[in-house]
Amino acid sequence: MARGAKVDRGLGVRIQRDAPTRLLPFTRFFRGFETVPAVRALFGAQTERVLHGLKVEFFSARFGYMGTSDVDGHLLISTHHLHDSDFRTVYLDLVHELCHVRQFRKGRPLFYPKLSYVDAPSEIEAYRKTIDEGRRIGMTRKELIDYLKVEWISPAEHRRLARRCGLGPARTKRAGHRRRPKK
Ligand SMILES: [Zn+2]
Fold it and tell me: How far away, in angstroms, is 131 Cα from ligand 1 center?
């Protein structure tokens, strides 16, 4: 183990507080993302370089899906999610995380501890781009709204997030400026 790793002792046990993460190349598992317009829009001419340098850490806990490290910008991916979730969900989640990778590279914060998940600027931006990509690949409004449903947000937060991604409540047919019927 690296010298100088932080170690605590107490209660008769020893706990090493620093641990390595096992990182694997993104491109070993995910190919062709450099051709996705939404990904190219994020990294431009650097797309290939960024994706080839990107690393992934897999974890096998039953909770959580994907994330981006705010320490060094690598991806974290649940092996259960990768294995079991439907193709478009995994695809959109990867696009979402790549938005966070870009934010990290720009030195922007990924986490806003004082804000709710759906109010964090990093999440709003990532979800907007992800939903745009979902539209591009032909997902319906309902599928996109369902995609935004994650168990850690409330129904009100889900509606807020959907609205922010341009999936607000369906407009009743254009009524122009007609007055409400008097009662
Ligand atoms: Zn996110």
Answer: 12
